[in-house]
């Protein structure tokens, strides 16, 4: 029994472990499950390996029925692109005002982070899916109000789009964004709400934040004229976010660039391939 989980990863880990065993096992979850789409992704991912996970409401909670074991598939598997990484790439193109696509990521993906396309449209970008994959075109032009409870890994990218809008906005109301559903971000590799708030404030933006939200609005343009070093606190997703912000604001540097190796070791090279100017500087002690 899993009571009041703080992350969907707790349940996903248990489900995968139980799926390795033959026969039938059960996990009961009591309390709200954060980031539920990631558990749906876990359920989809075990199916090609011969296991199944079914869920039903029972006695005030959800019961997950796990049928194993996991077996090697008879045929090679095609793994689709990671949607959270694809969101970073698509956002980079959008902030630069260009057009780009990630083939292989479709609207039928089990990944909840495919909703980046929907969120990008909320910021005024043209974005969608076609038979080949996901595409985006044009810069973000307006602030957005997004509930990211189901896909919190998109929050850093959404915050970067919000920052790009706020830095360019002529009217405060049109340049203000509100991101909610962020309660799980405080328990990630860093306190992502605080880290984002601190970094975006250094860009001269007006940033409000609480236990589960970020509000990003235009601020004092004069405060953003000096070179700024943004510290991702060793968190790969914070480094991605600050790199995206550097495409919208001049003289922005990202400390500890090597932290991206956790999920995307070639990130800086790939960003340069997209047309960004990436330089390495030694920070003064």
Describe the structure.
The radius of gyration is 20 Å and the shape is globular. A 4-stranded mixed β-sheet has the order 1-2-4-3, covered by helices on one side. Strands 8-9-11-10 form a 4-stranded mixed β-sheet, covered by helices on one side. It has 2 domains: 2-68; 83-273, UDP-n-acetylglucosamine1-carboxyvinyl-transferase, Chain, CATH 3.65.10. The protein is α/β, with parallel strands linked by helices. The longest helix has 14 residues, at 155-168. The protein is built from 8 helices and 13 strands.
Task: Give the overall pLDDT as a whole number.
Answer: 94
Structure summary, number of beta strands? 13
Helix amount? 25-40%
Through-space gap between termini? 50 Å
Reported by name, the CATH topology of the largest domain is UDP-n-acetylglucosamine1-carboxyvinyl-transferase, Chain
Instruction: Give unreliable regions as ranges.
Output: none
Give the structural class. Answer: alpha/beta
- Estimate what percentage of residues fall within beta strands: 15-25%
SSE ordering: EHEHEEHEHEEEHEHEEEHEH
Number of separate domains: 2
Individual helix count: 8
CATH class of the largest domain: Alpha Beta
User: Globular, elongated, flat, extended or rod-shaped: what is the shape?
Assistant: globular
Rg calculated over all Cα atoms: 20 Å
CATH architecture verdict of the largest domain: Alpha-beta prism
Major beta-sheet overview: 4 strands, mixed
Please give the order of strands in the largest beta sheet: 1-2-4-3
């Amino acid at each position: 029994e899993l009571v009041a989980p703080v992350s969907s990863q707790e349940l996903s880990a248990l489900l995968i472990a139980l799926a390795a065993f033959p026969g039938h096992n059960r996990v009961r979850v009591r309390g709200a499950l954060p980031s539920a789409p990631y558990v749906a992704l876990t359920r989809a991912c075990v199916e090609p390996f011969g296991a199944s996970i079914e869920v039903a409401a029972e006695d005030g909670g959800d019961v997950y029925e796990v049928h194993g074991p996991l077996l090697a598939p008879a045929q090679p598997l095609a793994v689709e692109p990671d949607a959270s990484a694809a969101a970073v790439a698509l956002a980079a193109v959008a902030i630069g005002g260009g057009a780009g696509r990630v083939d292989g990521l479709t609207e039928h993906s089990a990944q909840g982070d495919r909703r980046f396309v929907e969120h990008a449209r909320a910021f005024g970008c043209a974005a969608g899916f076609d038979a080949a994959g996901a595409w985006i075109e044009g810069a973000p032009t307006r602030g957005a109000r997004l509930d990211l409870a189901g896909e919190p890994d998109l929050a850093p990218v959404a915050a970067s789009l919000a920052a790009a809008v706020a830095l360019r906005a002529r009217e405060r109301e049109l340049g203000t964004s509100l991101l909610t559903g962020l309660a799980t971000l405080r328990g990630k590799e860093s306190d992502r709400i605080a880290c984002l708030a601190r970094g975006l404030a250094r860009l001269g933006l007006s940033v409000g934040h609480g236990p589960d939200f970020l509000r990003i609005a235009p601020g004092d343009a004069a405060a953003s004229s000096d070179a700024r070093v943004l510290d991702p606190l060793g968190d790969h997703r914070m480094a991605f976010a600050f790199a995206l912000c550097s495409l919208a604001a001049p003289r922005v540097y990202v400390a500890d660039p090597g932290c991206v190796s956790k999920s995307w070791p070639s990130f800086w090279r790939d960003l340069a391939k997209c047309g960004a100017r990436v330089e390495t500087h030694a920070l003064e002690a």
